[in-house]
Design a protein that fits this description.
Layout lengths: L2 H9 L15 H12 L11 E5 L14 H8 L4 E5 L2 H6 L10
Antiparallel strand pairs: 1-2
């Protein structure tokens, strides 16, 4: 090994073993995970597989009295996420999924 290689190898950090450190868990993230694990739609109360509806800004929800009930739920909890079932989520977006084709 020449001098340049020795200098380069001494400045390199040793590879780490094991899992990478995870991102810090914030209170909001922990709360969302708890809500997801509950498996209950926050819009209709149905226990089913759930998804998360997310808005970029709370201001995007509009003004009180001029918004749908799901937006009132989000505004009341001051949160940009709502855990909803597969039936309510398309309703929020104003779209219904196309039924799968069967053979």
């Amino acid at each position: 090994m020449n001098t340049a290689q020795a200098e380069h190898s001494s400045t390199r950090s040793a590879p780490t073993c094991g899992p990478k450190p995870s991102a810090p868990v914030t209170i909001k993230r922990k709360e969302l995970v708890t809500r997801l694990l509950a498996g209950r739609c926050e819009a209709c109360g149905r226990v089913d597989e759930v998804e998360v509806h997310h808005v970029a800004k709370l201001a995007d929800l509009g003004r009180s009295g001029n918004r749908p009930p799901w937006a009132d739920l989000m505004a009341a909890r001051h949160g940009k996420t709502l855990v909803v079932c597969g039936s309510c989520h398309p309703d929020i977006h104003g779209t219904r999924p196309v039924p799968a084709l069967t053979e």
